[in-house]
Amino acid sequence: MRAFGSASRLELLRAMQDPRQLDAAPGEVSEHGVCLALLARTVGIAGPTALQHLSKLIEAGLCVKTADRRGGGFTFYRRDENAITDVADRLRHV
């Protein structure tokens, strides 16, 4: 639940929900997810700050980090929809 305690983390999750809606440069969105630079720019925070927030979301199991080896080894992030649905279901039953 602490992962939801930050407005920036919630904004990062929202940004990853539908990456096609983001103002992305070529290569910033792929089937692997959304790159760190685009997420930081979208939320309006510095890259290192975005990385700290994403690390908390990964630790909480709400998002995953992937690498697109064909695209030069960039790191992408995407939501774990199953984990988010599980949390939402549990909250409905509280």
Automatic annotation (TrEMBL):
<dbReference type="GO" id="GO:0003677">
    <property type="term" value="F:DNA binding"/>
</dbReference>
<dbReference type="InterPro" id="IPR036388">
    <property type="entry name" value="WH-like_DNA-bd_sf"/>
</dbReference>
<dbReference type="InterPro" id="IPR011991">
    <property type="entry name" value="ArsR-like_HTH"/>
</dbReference>
<dbReference type="InterPro" id="IPR036390">
    <property type="entry name" value="WH_DNA-bd_sf"/>
</dbReference>
<keyword id="KW-0238">DNA-binding</keyword>
<protein>
    <submittedName>
        <fullName>DNA-binding transcriptional regulator, ArsR family</fullName>
    </submittedName>
</protein>
